[in-house]
Write a structure and sequence with these properties.
single chain; alpha/beta; Rossmann fold; seven-stranded mixed sheet; six-stranded mixed sheet; about 35% helix; about 20% strand; globular
């Protein structure tokens, strides 16, 4: 069924096997005085998802604003604090970007020790005077792709789906952030399918965002139980979900960036989480001297920080379904529909 300057980390260079690189030269006098650094989430670059999206935002800032940046790719959660302190000790960076919720604990320890250093935390909230937090309403976009899954099931034959009420979800790990994805997805499905059974499972383990093998096994198992639409919120592990979709010929839904192009015959849509926009905004605000440390910015459908896309998929969704999704989007934005953020 085929469907339509180099940064030196004093303690970490050899011991932690980090990849750290400096990019670009300043293109303006103002940019010459500004420099930022990013600490990526576990899984690093090449995940075709979260980390790559932040990197794209930094690259955009380099090209458009001329701001130089360094980055580090930690291998373990225990690396976060060491890298944060090393970067902070250098005094080299106007802002240090900490990427993903699993850096929250480390930053809560480090930030108080460096009150004059600005930090930006993406995907979590930390109330400190020198930290600006960027969080997202992942549940809003997940509601829309859940609704898409249920609407496709209503016309199962047209999409080569089984006529059942089974749906799958693969998360990286069980926590408040990933649960927002799952809660929104389940709510979107049940908005149209009262009889829905949503299997929610997590990769877990020591490498929840980079374990494609476990994610593939979970997705294949869900498919064997009748779930022929599976949504993932698992970072790089999600590539395993796509591999299972290709092998078993079921439909997958991507996350964060537009992942439809990875396998257009099996990925129908992607829930967009515009952390690239957040990264660019952080750099631009740093350059302009108005980074809103001590505050939280929440990105959702209303400001296009969250969304969904069908672009790039060979699975053609009907105009009727698209119209329904756009109506739901408008109702979420105006408050008619309130999407749950918890399971």
């Amino acid at each position: 069924m085929k469907r339509n300057g180099t940064l030196r980390l004093a303690v970490t260079a050899a011991a932690l096997s980090l990849t750290v690189t400096a990019f670009g030269q300043a293109q303006t006098a103002e940019a010459a005085d500004a420099k930022v650094a990013a600490i990526f989430g576990i899984g690093g670059l090449g995940d075709q998802s979260y980390n790559d999206l932040v990197y794209a935002g930094l690259e955009q800032a380099k090209e458009e604003l001329g701001v130089e940046f360094d980055y580090a790719e930690p291998k373990e959660v225990t690396d976060f604090e060491v890298i944060m302190r090393d970067m902070s000790d250098s005094g080299e960076y106007d802002t240090i970007l900490c990427i993903a919720f699993d850096q929250l604990d480390a930053l809560s320890k480090v930030a108080p020790d460096y009150p004059d250093q600005q930090y930006a935390l993406i995907d979590a909230t930390l109330e400190m005077d020198n930290v600006v937090s960027y969080s997202c309403k992942e549940h809003e976009g997940s509601f829309l792709v859940g609704a898409l899954a249920a609407l496709m099931k209503q016309d199962a034959a047209a999409y080569g789906l089984e006529e059942n009420h089974n749906y799958g979800f693969v998360g990286a790990m069980e926590n408040d952030t990933i649960n927002k994805f799952a809660a929104g997805y389940q709510a979107g499905i049940k908005y149209f399918d009262d009889a829905a059974e949503v299997q929610i499972q997590f990769v877990g383990g020591d490498n929840p965002f980079g374990d494609t093998t476990t994610a593939k096994e979970i997705a294949a198992s869900q498919f064997s139980k009748g779930c022929d639409i599976v949504y993932h919120a698992a970072g790089g592990s999600g590539l395993g979900v796509f591999a299972a979709a290709e092998e078993n010929d079921f439909i997958a839904i991507g996350v964060n960036s537009n992942q439809n192009i990875i396998d257009p015959d099996h990925i129908v849509a992607s829930m967009l989480k515009r952390v690239d926009t957040a990264a660019f905004d952080i750099v631009e605000s740093t350059l302009n001297g108005n980074l809103a440390v001590g505050t939280e910015k929440v990105l959702g459908l209303s400001d296009e920080g969250i969304g969904y896309t069908l672009e790039g998929s060979n699975i053609k969704v009907s105009d009727e379904i698209v119209a329904q999704l756009e109506e739901l989007k408008a109702q979420i934005i105006d408050g008619t529909i309130e999407v749950p953020a918890t399971l």
